[in-house]
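User: Teach me something about this protein's shape.
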Amino acid sequence: MPIRLLASEISSQIAAGEVVERPASVVKELTENALDAGAKNISITIVDAGRTLIEVADDGRGIPAAEMELAMTRHATSKLTQSSDLFRIRTLGFRGEALASIGSISRLSLVSRTESEREGAHLNVEGGVADRVEKVGAPQGTLVRVENLFYNVPARLKFLKTDTTERRAIDALVTRYALAYPHVRFKVTDDKQVTLQTAGDGDRRAILAALYGVDVAKQMLEVMSAEEGMTLNGFVSPVSLTRSNRKEITFFVNGRWVQEISLNAALLQAYHTLLMVGRYPLAALFLDMSPEDVDVNVHPTKAEVRFRNQDRAFSFVQRSARKALLAYTPVPSVSPQLWGSRPRDEETPRRQVGIDWTIGHEEDEGRKTEVEQPSTLNLQPASLLLRLIGQIGSTYLAAEGPDGLYLIDQHAAHERVLFEKLMAQHANKSIPSQALLAAEAVTLPPQSAKALTEQLPFLNRFGFEVEEFGANTFQVRAMPILFAGGSAEAALRALVEDFEEDESPLQAELEARLAARVCKRLAVKGGQTLTPEEQRSLLNDLEACESPRTCPHGRPTMIHLSVELLERQFGRRGAR
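Assistant: First, the predicted structure itself:
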């Protein structure tokens, strides 16, 4: 087959594939162009998760009418003049590929006016082919309308994910830039509904409150550090506020959002020994350094960077975050019980975890809050297979069985018990609810709020009474009696924080998966001391389960040490 040059439309679509992966990529490129133009107001409108329309309007410097057609040409930019400029980049964009790439795979309309011009200019581009520039009336700034994205590349269109997933990607992107540029007023409208609006007054904590709620924003710890040409500022969460994944760790380098593994590792190293395994902090950190010390031209989407001295950057981030944590984290107090003055059982406050499984309000698995109330257990005598020995490390139960010793993970066991009780009640359509004394309002980030909105019908069928209560806010009025005393906020966050981008379970599996998430969050945690009665009640309920050996997520609830194994370990029986 002879070698030939690719047609211009094919090469343009290949280049577009490197820059535009999904609707969020279009929003990113256009938002960065607006920021580079000095915009103070950026309005983003989305229809059908960006498939039908993406519109970004700003009040920046604008594009001169004489340069409008040139702006739609590949590698046309005002930000680089010579090769050495690549090593001191101070703008977000610099390759001159964004508008040309977007225009080659959509129907694009560009309207812009500079301060010095009395009239604006309008240009239509369809599939990379531009019409003539026309004069129009327009305010200063630029408006870009991207319609029918991937209309001429149907294969790419088929690979887009669900509308919910694409919307969440856009919301997550814009919220990050809203945090990085607090002096810019952002507004996002999704199908005529405003999902994000910031004041542009420079207050990052106010933006955190709009994204995560006032309670979370108040808890975030401020980081401010400077050292030899580098500065780091932003917010990190205290050790009591964590998530089950790294999705809410955000880093900006010189105003550019990056996904740099070394920076994430530095932050996690700052939390070393402070967090439980599998828990991650929230963070929005902004690192500034000399442009000569960082290379941003290493990835088609500019999402990765390379540092001239990576160890120095790693150490600076780690020490700065650790310093903030130690400055704000109080010294833990030692309980008198650890010094041999444990009160008698009848003097110890008890929590009811049997029967209705009343538990303490917990933000995460690493922290517990005792709920003091008298024990009202009504244990019925039963012929048990397991005989309780006691609790180990406030995390495991030891029990003797007919064929050896059993070590039981109390959190995994309680997950299984709650899950089977809840699913049994759901199957019988008889999940009893209990109204809260005061409705609890929960604010979520826009991307999480969209995921929860779709799951509300399932949640309400499980005995919760939840309704939308303003932008990205939900109000919980009732919870299942099975979870009485638990945290409504924890239940809602459990539904969205583990939601993976590619997760699309079958309808028959969805309710069970959501129920498992809620049970995981509301089950008793490792580190909670249970009374003997609560321990026996947990064993009793676990034995009554249909699948007592694993939690709903497949993790084992117990480990068995047979009598034969114990005899071999103690030398009573020869090793085989």
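Now, about its shape. The first strand starts at residue 41 and ends at 47. Residues 346-563 form a domain with the formyl-coa transferase, domain 3 fold (CATH 3.30.1540.20). If you'd like, I can walk through any region in more detail.
User: That's plenty for now, thanks!
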